[in-house]
Amino acid sequence: MRLSKPLRTLALGLGLVLASLSSGAAQEPPINIMTGSPTGTYIQFGRDMQNLMANCGQQMGVVESAGSLENFLGVRQRRQTQFGIVQNDVLEYMQTFAGQDPAVARTIRGVRIAFPLYDEEVHILGVKDIGSLADLAGRRVAIGTENSGTFLTSSLMLSLTGIEPAEKLTIGPQEALAALKAGDLDAFFYVTGAPAPIYADEDIDGDRFHLVPVADDTLRSVYTPTTLAAGTYPFQTEPVDLVAVKAVLMTFEYDMRGNAYHRAACDAVSDLSSLILTRLDDLREDGHPKWQQVDLEAIPPGWDISACVNRGISPDYVASCTAPEASPDSDANAAYRRNICAVMGC
């Protein structure tokens, strides 16, 4: 696959990104997950996992980020950051350049899969006269902030189809939506799992804007074809054909017999893995709707599962976290329970 100059430049600039991720904030907890913007699905998944750990007495920080590429690099380089949510096409991108650039090869060394997650749709919200992806040619299009998965996916899609917008703005979804409403933008890409809160905005006028369908055969062979059901968002009255990428929870291959930092990090990975596996039904019931689509067997090709994950999901693993003790019943509550049991049985 021939990639555009911006993507080749991005690969060569990974060292600069790594330098910026060399350490976390001083006050962060010892366990962290890198997610995405406040309006995306990643951060909601991060909070669901944060709640799992909190219920077992462990504090895990949820870190906002530019998105997938920064998250991948953060898992590799950022201290006390054991997890990051990443798009599958970012993984393919990193593998493509690993054979061409030693710096990229070093970057992916030691990064492992924790769990495959869900498909996230490529949303392209645009003005109504953009009827297809090809109509983005010659228009003003926002492609996501640099180091985000949206930036990578939108750049790949435009490169694969040969579409050249008149202007490509590297801004995030909230800024892009405001520019679209103001008439300063014609469309913007945002890769996120539906339903995404940003599109629940009642101010998105369905007479002016719509989700641009993706029917290009090349893209539908590279990505997963999907259909967004009518009514997923207030402005969207008809089903829309889109494409999707797989979101994946990444971690690092910590040495469970290594130094104190590696042992503690491996314990955190094992504990969260055990909780996700044993409480997946709870996540599907109480967490983000996308948990219902999580397929734990859909491992991306070419990537290995972490040894600490495999330890955590083994049948004999006992998590080092412990659930908070329940408060004892008051005398009144204890009497109530005895009476209920006497009548109904316990």
From TrEMBL:
Against SUPFAM superfamilies, the record matches this protein to: Periplasmic binding protein-like II
InterPro entries for this protein = TRAP_TAXI (IPR011852)
Q: What keyword terms does UniProt attach to this protein? A: Signal
Q: Name one Pfam family in it.
A: NMT1_3
Gene3D superfamilies in UniProt: Periplasmic binding protein-like II (3.40.190.10)
Note the superkingdom of the native organism. Bacteria
User: Which stretch is the leader sequence?
Assistant: 1-25
- Please name the PANTHER family in this protein's record: SLL1037 PROTEIN
- This protein's name: TAXI family TRAP transporter solute-binding subunit
